[in-house]
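Residues and backbone
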Amino acid sequence: MAPQTSFNNLKVLEPLVPGSSEKGQITQEVVKHGGLGILTAAIFLAGEMAGSGVLALPAAMIGTGGWLGLALIFLFTANAGFSGTRLGLCWIMLEERYEEFRGEVRDPYPAIAEKAVGRWGRIASVVAISLTLYGGGCVFIVLIAQLLGSLIGSAGFQLSLCVWMVIVAICLTPLTWMGTPKDFWPIAVGALITTCLACLLVIITCVLDGTQIEEKVFPTPTYDGTFKAFGSIMFAFAGASTFPTIQADMKDRSKFNISAIMAMGVLFFIYFPMAAACYFSLGDQVTDNIVLAMSDGWQRITVEIMLLLHLISAYPIITNPPAQFFEQLLGIPSDFNWKRCLFRSLSVAGLLFIAETVPSFGSILDLVGASTVTLLTFIFPPYFYMKLSDASIDKKEWTTRKLPLWERIYCWALILIGLAGGACATYTAVRNIFSSSLSVPCYLMGDTTNVTISAGGH
């Protein structure tokens, strides 16, 4: 296990004086010590992205006939990998051109956006990141509360969902007090391990259950089914907004592309077997949450426990990037202090209030995710990359980066795919919101034990 380090004593990471080459050399030297290695960074990326979205992949295959859906998973793996590596190259360009980015930076994604397209890019990325990650954290509170209620309820101890959410929020709050992703090394490992084990158990159970089905039905592919699969798979690859944050904590940030490719490989070997094995074993009997299609028994209970562990492990990781940004905005020091603890505790309390107000949070999160996740993962990275690369042509003192034609075409294709997929997913989410009335706030309900929620990947 890599040693955990902190930035508490790195005084040279304060904003540098332009032209001070000595300070610049000291900063680069300090950054090389401690931090994440290539493998640990890959684990963080895979652990953050492999979330609840994987549970919806088997059902996403229904409207695609299976094979088209599997092709989409392969395509999205390649696209997400390309997008992640472009973000990595964006950060390398910022380090080459601006001394202030060679030290500790608490809001790397907005910094990339601002240098690429100006102030509006920073604002747009901050809004998108905050809505996506804090929205995911809010849903996590509800999902964890439901899992706890289900597991402990089976032992005869019953509490309402409202009460469970309060208990969950109190327990999660101390986990959010840690600083940068380097402090989350054990959590990242736990998130990835629990996801892999849960998926393996789901696959084995579904295959065994499939042997009991006499006649399996595989529906004919439809346009609506394909669009639904497009959105479901897109959510499963959400999480690009944390890429620069993790890269900024690496020992050698120039090796981030290797970590991103490794993480995409891990995701593919989780997603592809999960979708293929479960769909071709159960056919149209797969459910939106594949766990619900599993037969009752110790396997299902174990999977629920694994998912519970994953959600708890991933919660501080996904809420950390926006927390770092707002703390910098408010002038809260980056070391461990009471101001950080207070701010992050209040943030969890705010998310708890939203969860209690809208316990049926799935449709709203789908709407936010369809727009902001698409922007952060498929539209912004290639666009920012092209803008930063093209800017080097007019600046002779910068390293010239001329994009080959194939790469530029790929970037624009990725942007168009993101726009089309985001539009379809947004339309679906809006239609779902208006087709069903929003739930009454949890604290106004007499009984919340039956409240259900659906969500995409975090």
User: Anything to note?
Assistant: Residues 81 and 264 are 6 Å apart (CA to CA). DSSP finds 15 helices and no strands in the chain. The two ends are 26 Å apart (CA to CA). Residues 119-153 form the longest helix (35 residues).
